[in-house]
Amino acid sequence: MTKIGNDWDEIFKNESEKEYFLEMKEYLQKEYSEKVVYPPKDEIFTAFKLTAYRDVKVVILGQDPYHGFGQAHGLAFSVKKDIKTPPSLRNIYKEILAEGEGEVFNNGCLESWAKQGVFLLNASLTVRESEANSHSKIGWTVFTDEVIKKINEKDEPVIFVLWGNNAKAKKKYITNKKHIILEGVHPSPLSANRGFFGCDHFKDVNNILRKLYGLSINWNIN
User: Which residues contact 176 (CB under 8 A, 6 or more apart)?
Assistant: First the structure.
């Protein structure tokens, strides 16, 4: 496992020695040498590097990385600043605007959210170019199940935001009654009109955080 540089390293010290992880690592070495795979190797664990375990206040779950050129950089729903904002993220911005929780969205890079304690986790952390879900069965879901279980162990309340059926599948691992779960429709253009718009999740997150910690997330993207 790539060294992350914060408390995730200690939490997953043993995970990287398990058989499934070693097999996945070997598979990925072959994939990266023979195929075009996203994100770049050094960005696979960006979500973990930007949001230490101790700092996780909100978890937003995605499915797998964007599979177009230059898009994925290790954060769910996020792209780098010079990349066109994808449709699902545009819908997320529309909802934030409608809720009155933000008004500036100059690009699609969500690093500022991650640095405020919003853990942007995909169920799979890698993908082949132009092949959605191509790495969904190589071991990543086992790993991210363990991630959710570890966050579930936190004593401090965490808000889990589950959009769509893939994210809701992780709900069974959130058993600690201290945590809060917000469920809804995925922001994809295929489903957003069926309940994502009007969900008020960004407003709810900030209201909960103010009550719990006296803080809120600045959802603006400059």
Answer: 152, 153, 154
Identify which of 135, 115, 117 has the alpha carbon closest to the alpha carbon of residue 44: 135
Token reading at 89:
């993220």
* Closest alpha carbon to 197 in 58, 93, 87, 78: 93
Q: Which residues contact 115 (CB under 8 A, 6 or more apart)?
A: 50, 51
The CA-CA-CA angle for residues 159, 10, 21, to 5°, reads 90
> Which of these, 189, 161, 197, 191, lies nearest to 86 by C-alpha position?
189
Closest CA to 182 of 159, 210, 206: 159
Rounded CA separation 131/155 (Å): 38
Give the model confidence (pLDDT) of 113-140 as tens digits.
999 999 999 999 999 999 999 999 999 9
Determine if the peptide bond prior to 39 is cis (ω within 30°): yes
Residue 3's pLDDT band (cuts 50, 70, 90): confident
How confident is the model over 145-155, as a mean pLDDT?
97
Q: Mark whether 64 is an active-site residue.
A: yes
Distance CA 46, CA 2 (A): 11
Catalytic pick from 7, 9, 42, 64?
Answer: 64
